[in-house]
Specification:
alpha/beta, Rossmann fold, Helix Hairpins, 6-stranded parallel sheet, 5-stranded antiparallel sheet, monoatomic cation transmembrane transporter activity, Trk K+ transport system NAD-binding subunit
């Protein structure tokens, strides 16, 4: 919340922040110039005090509501309450669960959903791989990626540029319905066969780990008792060797013995048989207890999912929360061998790792033995992206000692600490999820255009969203007339049912229509001029800043 309030106040917005008084940022938010309401539970009365109420047909004094709770259910509940209080209120909501976020338009109508993990994860992956070929962005209600066609999953949504035909890149090539080009937009990356995969431990190593020293000692005692009993049974009861082995094993393992075998034996032999059987019962109980203790203490899923062998040139991801889980998915799409490290084996990223068959080391990422188990001394990159700044800092310091050549990226919230760590300790790059997400939230509140830039040789293509204003020259024109060969391409349009990525280009453009477009700087400028109302342009026809 601190980053978002900072961004909004810096943009000149009047902000009322509803903050839990126990939050460590409570006082800092007030110092930024925002009006702070200290409450523990957000209720209808709290929202009304914050300015959300359209009673008597009057609009709310608040023009937007931003929901940043880490609990998606609380965010949805608060959003529904606010929508009942003011049907026209602008709602910006940060969601962890992307599937639930995709359904919010059916519940809330007009709202902006910000997926923090999806926005932040590509930046961490780019740092780990030193990759600047791909550009991740969100436009038209979809999370998309632009880059070389060889890396983007088919079918491609559109072709942005052709950099192979000549020395000068051709932007937004026209012609056929599927123009040629090597810079494209798609929904994800191609799945690449990983030639240097890291294998999980599997059942064989799990069995080895469960059979620890205690189990081996008890098993050895039982084996010695069986051999001794076999020899005594053979010599004293004059029983053949195989039958003697069967009787001794049955007695020691509590499977029972045949009574008539020792019916004619001497009393001391019968007593010895009973003692052997009782000893076997005790040993079997101990063996069972030790194995169960090993399974409970280690968790079978943890043992099976560990690392097998000595991986090399892989990426280690420390911290498998929602961001870490998304990082794993992108790395797998890129065909990169990866190992996860997480303290909580119920974390959402651990479930993602199991689904993707990625090895996971369960333990504290700041512990040297845990990092050694993940093979950081032979890794090409390490991402320390847990929720704790100190944990990430400690992990990075241990990694630097074990592998001075590894690329290290830290997730750090404290901006000042991050700058000092980078400058004085030289532990690598640092990023903040909140700083990556806050500008997108502030842009949504202010209804500013949030645009992404995709390089194509020495030129660039811009991707953004534009709203057609009432009385603009674009109103009434066919959608296809807005396309401009080499300058602008309409990708999708938003109507009452949501975003349409296969729009009818012969339909007329209505006021309030929102368009997702790709264009050059000049092409986008002409579109903005055409979609703005007359009062938004200066006397010379240029757009006001």
């Amino acid at each position: 919340m601190l980053r978002v309030v900072t961004e909004l106040v810096g943009s000149g917005e009047h902000v009322t922040a509803v903050v839990n008084p126990a939050s460590r940022h409570f006082e800092r938010i007030g110092e930024l110039g925002a009006q702070v309401m200290g409450v523990r539970v957000v209720s209808e009365s709290v929202l009304r005090r914050a300015g959300i109420d359209s009673a008597d047909g009057k609009p709310s004094t608040a023009r937007a509501l931003v929901l940043l709770d880490a609990d998606d259910v609380h965010n949805v509940h608060t959003a529904l309450t606010a929508r009942d209080m003011d049907p026209d209120l602008k709602i910006v909501i940060q969601m962890v669960n992307p599937r639930l976020g995709g359904q919010l338009h059916n519940l809330l109508g007009d709202c902006v959903v910000i997926a923090g993990p999806s926005l932040a994860a590509p930046a961490f992956v780019a740092d780990a791989l030193e990759d600047d070929e791909l550009t991740w962005f969100e436009v038209g209600g979809r999370r998309l990626v632009a880059g070389p066609a060889a890396l983007i999953r088919t079918p491609h949504l559109t072709v942005l540029a052709d950099t192979t035909s000549s020395a000068t890149p051709e932007l937004l090539p026209a012609g056929s319905s599927d123009p040629a080009g090597d810079i494209v937009v798609g929904t994800g990356l191609r799945k690449v066969l990983r030639t240097r995969d890291v294998r999980r431990a599997g059942w064989l190593m799990a069995t080895r780990d469960v059979m620890d020293r205690r189990v081996r000692v008890i098993a050895a005692v039982m084996a010695g008792l069986i051999l001794t009993g076999t020899a005594l049974t053979h010599w004293i009861a004059h029983v053949e060797w195989l039958r003697a082995l069967y009787l001794a094993a049955g007695a020691v393992t509590s499977a029972g013995i045949e009574d008539n075998t020792f019916s004619d034996a001497k009393p001391w032999a019968k007593i010895a048989a009973v003692v052997v059987q009782l000893t076997g019962i005790v040993l079997m109980a101990l063996l069972t207890a030790v194995i169960v203790d090993s399974l409970i203490g280690a968790r079978l899923s943890r043992v099976i999912g560990g690392v097998r062998g000595r991986p090399r040139n892989h990426v280690v991801v420390c911290g498998l929360g929602t961001v870490g889980g998304r990082v794993l998915e992108i790395l797998v799409e890129r065909g990169v061998a990866v190992v996860g490290v997480e303290r909580d084996d119920d974390a959402p990223g651990v479930q993602t790792a199991h689904r993707l068959r990625i090895p996971v080391v369960i333990g504290d990422s700041s512990n040297e033995e845990t990092l050694r188990s993940a093979g950081v001394q032979r890794a090409q990159a390490v991402l320390a992206i847990t929720n704790g700044d100190i944990t990430n800092l400690e992990s990075a310091m241990v990694v630097r000692e074990l592998n001075p050549d590894a690329r290290i990226t830290l997730r750090m919230f404290d901006h000042d600490l991050a700058q000092r760590v980078e400058r004085q300790l030289g532990l690598g790059h640092s990023r903040s999820v909140s700083m990556l997400v806050a500008p997108a939230i502030a842009a949504a509140v202010a209804n500013r255009r949030s645009q992404s830039t995709v390089p194509a040789g020495r030129r660039v293509v811009l991707l953004t969203e534009v709203t057609v204003e009432r009385d603009s020259v674009a109103v009434g024109r066919r959608l296809g007339e807005l396309d401009e060969a080499g300058g602008l391409r309409v990708l999708a349009r938003q109507d009452r049912d949501g975003w349409d990525w296969e729009p009818a280009f012969d339909r007329a453009v209505a006021p309030g229509t929102r368009l997702a477009v790709a264009g050059t700087r000049s092409g986008l400028a002409r579109l903005l001029l055409a979609t703005r109302a007359p009062h938004r342009s200066g006397p010379s026809g240029r757009m006001d800043p």
